UniProtKB/TrEMBL annotation:
Record Pfam families: DegT_DnrJ_EryC1
Entry superkingdom: Bacteria
Cofactor(s) for this UniProt protein: pyridoxal 5'-phosphate
PANTHER family membership: DTDP-4-AMINO-4,6-DIDEOXYGALACTOSE TRANSAMINASE (PTHR30244:SF34), TRANSAMINASE (PTHR30244)
Enzyme Commission code: 2.6.1.92
Protein name as catalogued: UDP-4-amino-4, 6-dideoxy-N-acetyl-beta-L-altrosamine transaminase
Record carries keyword Membrane: no
Coiled coil (UniProt feature): none
Keyword Phosphoprotein found: no
UniProt keywords, alphabetically: Aminotransferase, Pyridoxal phosphate, Transferase
Gene from which the chain derives: pseC
A GO term for molecular function: transaminase activity
Species whose genome carries this gene: Kribbella deserti
Length: 374
C-alpha cells in the first residue's frame, strides 16, 4: 500500500538522535533550547515554546491567551477536532464560521458575521499548508478586542505575502507529527508575538513553574526555590525529540520544494479532467503543501475512495466537519451550519503527499485516479 503520508528520516537524523542518547541530557537540556531558537528564527524571530504535540500546543496557546468560561472562540469546522476541543475543554463556547468555497480556509466574511464582544480568539487553520487570510482576520479580531491564532499544523515553512508562517497571527501553533512538514516523532510548538504571552505559554507547559526571583512572593529562600502561581501541564519536549527536529529543519526547504513539485505534477495532470477539482491557491501565498486535497465531483467520493484503496493507494479524508462529532452534536450543534465546509467534506480526498514520493509513485496515483473518474 502506498501511504498517503510518511516521515522522511535520514542517516543524519539518526546520528543526531543517537548523539543525544550518548550524552548527558535526555530532556530539558541544550537541544531543547537550540530547537526553540531555530523554530523562532523561521517564524519571524518570535519566541517559540516546544511541546509534546500539536494538540498540546493548542492547549498551551488557549491557556496563555486566558481562554475560559464565558469566552467565545471562533474557528473553522474544516480541521482536526483539537482546534476546537482544546478551547471547549476550558469552558469556552465554540462558534463555527464557514470556510471559503474554493480554499476551505476560514472565511473572513463569515467570521465578521459571528464575532461579538465575548469573542476571545479567532482561530484559523492553514488547511493543507495554505495560509489563511490573516490580513483580513486580524482587523476583525482587533475590532472586538480578540486575538488571532494560526493553527499552522500543516503550513510550517510556508509564507503569506512574503511573511513566514509564525509571523501572521498573534499566536501560532505547530505540529511535528511524523506526516507533517518536519517531525520530532511527536511534538509541537507555540510561537507568540507578545513576549508576555510567550512566557505564559512557557510556564504553562512547564507545570506552572516560575523561576524569576523578581516575581516571587517569598524572597528569603535559597537558589533551589521556585513558585507555582497558576496551574500548568507537563508538556515539555525532550532533547531526543528536539535533536531530530533540529536535523529535520536543515531539510525543511528541500521538503517544501518536493511537496511543491508533487502538487504541480498533480495539478497539471488533473487540470480539465471531468469529475475532478484541484486545490485553489491565492497568488500571494506560497504554501508548504502538507496535503493534496482533490475534490471528487458528482457524488462519487466514497466510491472513488474505496477503489483507490483497493488499488493499493493510501488516501484519506481531511476533515469531517468538527461539529458533526457527537461531542459537539450533544451540545446542540447541527448539520447545515456551514454549507461550504460540508460540501467540501463531501467531495475531498487527500492523495499521497510526502517528500520521498517518486515521480513514478505520483504517476501511478494520477493514472489510477483518472482511470476511475474517466
Amino acid at each position: 500500500m502506498l501511504p498517503y503520508g510518511r516521515q522522511s528520516i535520514s542517516e543524519e537524523d539518526i546520528e543526531a538522535v543517537t548523539a543525544i542518547l550518548r550524552g548527558d541530557w535526555l530532556t530539558t537540556g541544550p537541544a531543547v533550547t537550540a530547537f526553540e531558537q531555530a523554530i523562532g528564527e523561521i517564524a519571524g524571530g518570535h519566541r517559540a515554546v516546544s511541546c509534546t504535540s500539536g494538540t498540546a500546543a493548542l492547549d498551551i496557546a488557549y491557556s496563555a491567551l486566558g481562554v475560559g468560561p464565558g469566552d467565545e472562540v471562533v474557528t473553522t469546522p474544516m480541521t482536526f477536532v483539537a482546534t476546537a476541543s482544546c478551547a471547549a475543554i476550558k469552558g469556552a463556547k465554540i462558534v463555527f464560521a464557514d470556510v471559503e468555497e474554493d480554499t476551505a480556509l476560514l472565511d473572513p466574511a463569515a467570521v465578521q458575521a459571528v464575532v461579538t464582544d465575548r469573542t476571545k480568539v479567532i482561530a484559523a487553520v492553514d488547511y493543507a499548508g495554505h495560509a489563511a487570510d490573516y490580513d483580513a482576520l486580524q482587523p476583525i479580531a482587533d475590532s472586538v478586542g480578540a486575538k488571532t491564532l494560526a493553527d499552522a499544523a500543516h503550513s510550517v515553512g510556508g509564507t503569506y505575502k512574503g511573511r513566514p508562517v509564525g509571523d501572521l497571527a498573534d499566536v501560532t501553533t505547530m505540529s511535528f507529527f511524523p506526516t507533517k512538514n518536519l517531525t520530532t516523532g511527536e511534538g509541537g510548538a507555540v510561537v507568540a508575538k507578545d513576549p508576555a504571552v510567550a512566557q505564559k505559554a512557557h510556564e504553562f507547559h512547564f507545570i506552572g513553574v516560575v523561576r524569576d526571583p523578581e516575581r516571587f512572593r517569598v524572597t528569603d529562600e535559597g537558589p533551589w526555590y521556585y513558585e507555582v502561581h497558576e496551574f500548568g501541564q507537563n508538556y515539555r519536549l525532550t532533547d531526543v525529540a528536539c535533536a531530530l527536529g533540529l536535523s529535520q529543519l536543515k531539510r525543511l526547504d528541500e521538503f517544501k520544494k518536493r511537496r511543491t513539485e508533487i502538487t504541480a505534477r498533480y495539478n497539471e495532470a488533473f487540470a480539465g479532467v471531468d469529475g475532478l477539482r484541484t486545490p485553489a491557491q491565492r497568488e500571494y501565498v506560497d504554501p508548504a503543501w502538507h496535503l493534496y486535497p482533490v475534490r471528487i465531483l458528482g457524488g462519487r467520493r466514497k466510491e472513488v475512495f474505496g477503489k483507490l484503496r483497493e488499488a493499493g493507494i493510501g488516501v484519506q479524508v481531511n476533515y469531517i466537519p468538527v461539529y458533526w462529532h457527537p461531542v459537539f452534536t450533544d451540545l446542540g450543534y447541527q448539520r447545515g451550519m456551514c454549507p461550504n465546509a460540508e460540501q467540501f467534506y463531501a467531495e475531498e480526498i487527500s492523495l499521497p503527499m510526502f517528500p520521498d514520493l517518486t515521480d513514478g509513485d505520483v504517476d501511478r496515483v494520477i493514472e489510477t485516479l483518472i482511470g476511475l473518474v474517466g
